Amino acid sequence: MELIKSAFSAVKRIFKYDARFKFSVITLTCLVAFAILSLFSPHDPRSSYYAPINHPPSLKYPFGTNGRGQDLFWLLTHALKNSLIFSLEVALLSRVVAIIIGITAGYKGGLLDQFLVLLCDSFIILPLLPILIFLKLIMRTMTFPTLAIILAMFGWPWDARLIRSQILSLRERTFTYSAVFSGRGLWSMIFSDYLPHILPIVLATTVNNMLWSLGFEITFSILGLTPLDVPTMGTITYWAIQQQALVMGKWWWIAFPMIFLIFLFVALYFLFVSITDFIDPRARILKRG
Amino acid sequence: MWKNFLKYLVGRLLVCLVVIFIGTTITFLIPRIIPGANPAEVAVRRLQMAGTYLPPESAERMRQALLKLYGLEGTIFEQYIRYWREFLRGNLGPSFASFPTPVLVLISRSIPWTVGLLALTTVISWLVGTILGGIAGYKNRGLWMKIFEVFSNAVRPIPYYILALLLLILFAYVLKWFPTGGAYRIGMNPSFTWSYISSVIKHGFLPALSLILIGVGGWFLNMRNLVSNVSHEDFVVFASHMNLKEDIVFRSYVMKGALPPQITGLALQLGMIFNGTIITEIVFNYPGLGMLIYTAIMQADFNLVMGITLFSIIAVAVATFLIDLTLPLVDPRIQYTGK
Amino acid sequence: MKLSVEDLTAHYVTESYGIVKRVYALESVTFQIGEEEFLAIVGESGCGKTTLARIVYGAVTPQLHIVNGSVRYFFGGTTYEISSRQNSVKNLWWKKVSYIPQGSLNVLNPMRRVRDIVKDLETSHGIEIPEEKIKQHLETLKLPSHVLNMYPFELSGGMRQRVVIALATILQPELIIADEPTSALDVVVQYEILQLLKEIQSQRRCSFIFITHDISLIPNLADTLMIMYGGHLVEYGRCKEVLSNPQHPYTRFLISSIPRIGDKREKASIPGYPPDLTNPPPGCRFHPRCPYVKEECLSENPPVLEVGPKHYVKCWLFG
């Protein structure tokens, strides 16, 4: 399809001319490769005390071992993989809701639109952390898939609003009127005509949502409210803090996860910013002009 | 004109009320809908698992007492009515872990710390970020602005917890410049003496710094983009064609044009800023709502957690509404279109 | 002479993500304006008239590059120049020259009352205009004095336009550039504004550049008429002369399109499309649509030739 071809050439161009995009693509590729390494891990991620405790980084254990006798290197591969998959789950699930609500509100307009906007605004304002803590108390065990679903239920309003405003502007364009008057079906029009315009925004908001859900996962895990035997970036940090890594001078427990985390966050953020810059033509031209 | 302002007011009030309604209904429904989540049962089971021996009749009596305590008697409908009645009376029930202290009392002790931290850091970071962002977006030059921009971009994606932790490690453990937690030195009594106040400042510095650093970066970037866009609007270009003095254009045309969306941004992000404050409190052991809810969940204190959740929802909704109210003061168009 | 534009060539250059786009907006435009002269510039959208207006005013944005030529102002013995190397006109802005931009409806700051905008003007130019004078000035534009207390969005389109004109004329400039000042208004208001502009020009004895795409507005309005097409000046002369005796094929089309009462003939539209200025046709830019196209037209830019007293045409038909 032409869409794929033009998307591909756009990506090549952004890569060449936007240093942030280059950085984020390279970094993310490395991180994903690292996460894929987890498939070759010789240890079951949930097991513990299979290695000598508190060993500093060495040839045998490149990232050292922690107080629970786990090889930090392989543990980190699993942690990265789980965190990435988690944030992708949330992002994709909430995309579905955001797109449906955004398109419906933007296109139908009227009372339905006003109601949906009211809903969006209300959900945006809700402070999520206390609610999540409350849910955790009620549910006693909060598994990661459950947390993902809950976050997805709260992660759509920002992006639904963005998609809605994009649809609003598209609706007024002439090609919409010609499509409608020529009797084109609503969904076929949305797919073939609107899609090229919506896709970049959906992509940008997906990345943003990943950032958001990752932040929540880590925060929630550090508070000790998620299954702590499942290695994620958050739970690793929890254990490091729990076992007083710093006080005991075992810097590698915290340092390695934190380095990976910072790279992950900055890479995702740069990806988001560079895509958003590319989408907004005025920002593009004015910066160079 | 006033009619439109009223229309706007009612619109925002509606949002505030819907938020409160959704929040409180979620808080009401969840424990009653999820199977096995009945707090009374959970509490009893917890005791039994902890090894306490409870003869069946005592366990049953305890269950009944707890059911009554948690307002779980009767049909869902009866419970809902009772829920709202007590809620409107300000009765959030007693805390389980600190029985019989009412939840509201515990919350009221923690509020000043959270509100102080939140209000202070939000105001500072929003003001500083907005002003600097305005200058950077309009003039677009200067090495300092570039440095600030890089810094903001670097800090923005990092979650509150990580930054707070980093600051704690660096300044409290490594450099030992600041205390590692608490709101004031242990053993001190709240008073208007300088030693108390300086202790509060010293203890509050790192948590505040952590919140301000993240906040200011975000507001800076946001305002800079807004101002950059507004600078290219027709009326700003026209103002420069009219050869109006640059600082007049900057203040009354560009900044004024960019302020309304920046304020709206504040209103929408308040919930997230609140989350961030809670997390920072937990990292720094700061005795606000954050610490309170953290210890509450560790102690499985159902009423307290629910109370704090409810309170947070309402507080954020009301604060958002208040911020929305400042918008008509800045943007005269609201009086005209009511939007 | 007040203003002289010589061989002005200007392009827009933008670069984003490695793609450079160049728009050949203006080519070799030359004309002059004298004291109290009312010049009308007519052309379709995209012919370069707004670019010309911007450069004449000296509002050169970073993407706009003056490749060749210059614009010179002669005020009280001093010459001010705008070219690729310099732009000394900024000090004259609003005091000696003013610019009424296209799309005036959004040009007033929505957050400021009209009175405050006037005050901004006063402060910036270091003058004080007594309230009476302001009200008088508004009156000449048929604006009630309570407009001063209103916000721009409270005014109708026609009133906003008149406020913009009021602002542009309050400092008594000697040259006023108006870019499509009536395009967004309904016909009745359009007529009123045109009359107003003509009055201002004759009363103040200033020079006026009036830019429009609608040639039917021009009769009885302008002294001199300039027709633009595809970035080129194609015909230029005294208004009455050009209207009654159009030489360039494009002008002839334009004039024949003016509706006349009683004229029931079918109007021919120009075949083809306006040129894409990122990739303009070689030679004469009108040649793809011209019914009289010759061989020279395809490859070489036509010269400017005098076909009558002060009547110039850029066309191979006369060369």
Overview features:
heterotrimer; A: 289 residues; disordered C terminus; B: MetI-like fold; 13 helices; 0% strand; globular
What is the gist of this entry?
The complex is a heterotrimer of chains A (289), B (339) and C (319). Chain A contains twelve helices and no strands. Chain A has helices spanning 2-17, 19-36, 72-108, 110-125, 128-139, 144-154, 157-171, 174-181, 186-222, 233-242, 251-279, 281-288.
What does this structure look like?
The complex is a heterotrimer of chains A (289), B (339) and C (319). Chain A has 289 residues and is mainly α. In chain A, helix 3 crosses helix 10. In chain A, 44% of the residues are buried. Chain A has twelve helices and no strands. Chain B has a domain of 227 residues: MetI-like (MetI-like fold). Helices cover 78% and strands 0% of the residues of chain B. In chain B, helix 1 runs antiparallel to helix 12, helix 6 packs across helix 8 and helix 10 packs parallel to helix 11. By secondary structure, chain C is of the alpha/beta class. Helices cover 25% and strands 28% of the residues of chain C. Chain C contains eight helices and twelve strands. In chain C, the strands form two sheets. In chain C, strands 6-7-8-3-9-10-12-11 form an eight-stranded mixed sheet, with helices on both faces. In chain C, strands 2-1-4-5 form a four-stranded antiparallel sheet, covered by helices on one side. In chain C, a hairpin with a 2-residue loop joins strand 4 and strand 5. The longest helix of chain C has 18 residues. Classes of the chains: A mainly alpha (289), B mainly alpha (339), C alpha/beta (319).
| Stretches with pLDDT under 50, minimum 5 residues of chain C | none
Helix content of chain C: 25-40%
Shape of chain C: globular
Oligomer: heterotrimer
The major sheet of chain C is characterized as: 8 strands, mixed
Please state the average pLDDT score of chain C: 89
Helix/strand-derived class of chain A?
A: mainly alpha
The helix/strand series of chain A, from N terminus to C terminus, equals: HHHHHHHHHHHH
Q: What is the makeup of the main sheet of chain A? A: none
Helix content estimate of chain A: over 70%
The helix-strand sequence of chain C is EEEHEEEHHHEHEEEHHHEE
